[in-house]
Amino acid sequence: MTVMKIGLITTLDTNIGDDFIRDGIRGLLSERYRGRTIEFVSVNKHSPFTVYPPWHPVHVRNLAGLLPLGRDRVRSAIERVCSRIGETRFDSCDLIVQCGAPVFWPECSASEWAVPLWHQVVGRLSSRIPVLNLAAGSCYPWERQPVKLEPEADAKYVRDILGYCRLTTVRDPLAERLCKSVGGDVVRLPCSAFLAFEPPAAREPEYVLVNYMPGGGHYEWDQGIDPSIWEGTVRRLVAELRKSEKVAFLCHDDRELALARALAPDLPAFLPRNSVEYGACIARAKFALCNRMHASVAMAGMGIPSIAVCTDTRLLMVAELGLPAYYVKDATPDLLLERTGQMLRTLDDERERLLTLQAQTRQGYLAALDGALSAS
């Protein structure tokens, strides 16, 4: 049987949330091409030149760093000339897929993968290999959400990548609006990470999980966020919740684990290292409060509701699931305690709603894939 090769533009060994995005997409593609043997070829977009095999002459670019002058100019010239040779790991693929994560953010056109992956590889191959951009999201400061793509370099970059792709799905309304501002035709569906986990046949919810990040998110974005206020809010929430619930921390990296242990040394703190461990961990949750948006999305896929708190428009991805999502400055202790109480009283209804939405989301993706790939 002929093996189908699918190239994935993704992030590797950086953030477990990217694994959930990729797992959801792999599952969809496996279902779309059920009965075929699939080989996934993953390229880390943060190391874009790994799209080339080790023997490829493009790697001579690394020697440019030895030059006394003109390093960047020489390196760019080597990349431009050698990229025309082709022979990348994607050249032999039957399909190329960009796997979720923020695609639109301030100065996204300057990302390290924009030229070497999108323009020099995907752009060249898009005339003969179908390209999909799935679960693309926005990441802008909550207080400075744009109405259109600016500057023009970002607008051109997005127009180009939309033009390379047979299908673009976006995971939030801002991403949809920005694509439409440059004439893009996109489909809005929840993040593919929502499809990464299936609810276990039987489970016994045990914990209220807390995922804590200083200041409420990855970036402060010059919005005047005081991290001590959010820390105080989390301390109060934990103190109130543990009066009636078993509380534990859910951590995505070693830093979060150290912060959790400093915040409440006597409470359990979990740090799953892969998707399998993560699924087993969140299966024990009845509810969660999350600063990591993909913690909320992953749990929602198991029918577990949460409240999300963040600093930027990644919040919109969680709101798309019908879950409460708050900008950190608005997330007061009283508000969060009130919403937590409401959601703990309606867990069964929320579970049913989320699982129904997950099934609808899967069908929405499969229909979009069929429309884009009907001839593939």
UniProtKB/TrEMBL annotation:
GO molecular function: transferase activity
Database matches in InterPro entries: Polysacch_pyruvyl_Trfase
Alphabetically ordered keywords of this record: Transferase
Domain Polysaccharide pyruvyl transferase: 15-309
Protein name stated in the entry: Polysaccharide pyruvyl transferase family protein
